[in-house]
Amino acid sequence: MTNSRVAIIGAGIGGLCLAQGLRGAGVDVAVYERDRTPSERLQGYRIHIDPGGARALHECLPRPLWEAFLAAATRSGQDFGFLTEKMDRLLLLETPHPPDPLDDHHSVSRIALRRTLLSGLSDVVRFGRTYERYTREPDGTVSLHFADGTTETADVVVGADGGNSRVRRQYLPHARRIDTGIVTLAGKFPLTDATRALVAPRLWRGPNMVIPPRGCGMFTAPQRFGDLDGPGDAGDPGPSPEKGGTPSGDTGGYVMWVFGAASGRFPDDLPGMTGERLRETVARMIEGWHPDLRRLVTASAPETVSLLPIRTSVPVDPWPATNITLLGDAVHSMTPMRGTGANIALRDAQLLTRALSGGQDPVTAIADYEARMREYGFAAVRRSLMAARQFVDESRLARAGFRTALRVAQRFPALRRRALSR
For the CA atoms of the chain, what is the radius of gyration? Predict the structure, then answer.
């Protein structure tokens, strides 16, 4: 790989982590991103980085950027509550923070994480380059064709262009991404001294899964943070112009809530609703719930409320390895119900960095990477789809049994430890 050029399509979390890792290993790498500037699309919901994701970042990032990540993130731990819609506690899983941040869970703004991942890559990331297709050349290289009529040539191409990947559609046209029939609506309840007094402390002390009798569910997670500005260079979008409680959420704390149900439970005109009408729709659907849960919704600013249809990839059989490969959502897009998508993409970046910088023939290296990636990636897809279906389970009997099992686990420490390990 010493003289090989790697082209990465897409400057998302996985693609940028891979670029950092390859750059650090001395590999010639370029990233092509359709956004015109780093700040064109500010994605503001914070994401959960688990120990696997943390280790991938630690391995791929130079030390100053790893430290910048730690400075931007909060160590969220594994304090997780299961509640009824009446705010009765079913189970609370609590563990202390481990001393090593590599073993801990972190919460970080997407904006801050992307800013950190872009640092030092101003000569690597090419903004305003909308990828359209590739062609193979007689010498084995790949030509990349862009919407502006330009082309680039690479020895290895990595599709890291998300769930609607154009690379995947051409390379693996039989690999499908489907609608699960589940719809979620999400919003942000701003956290201030005044608003904390309006809801039970459990809602702003840790994440919770709210489990009503059947047919729907709610997830809540507090996001508390301070200064998220990391180091930057010409690729740094600079401080977010948005304020706390707005979609970026970069300068204030909030409780993120996500309400989900099967699409048939929602009004037909849901896709065209404003944030205010989406908020009203959720408020009506949880009318009989505890006032504190309703307040999370009704006190959220309309501009923070958004519609998020749930889609998933369909696992496919192994394919012959070539000098084109895929990473993250481009190959194993999954539902957000287990919060693992970003971490699996980071794991991809970690393993692909090792493969492409280890001195092997590129196709052999990619074959090794894909064999492992398919195993853990599609396993995560299946687990997250199962979690999504459980989230909206219509069976009263199944839901009642689950709630009973959680109550029993709360009473016995051995069962709590087993639940936490799972």
Answer: 22
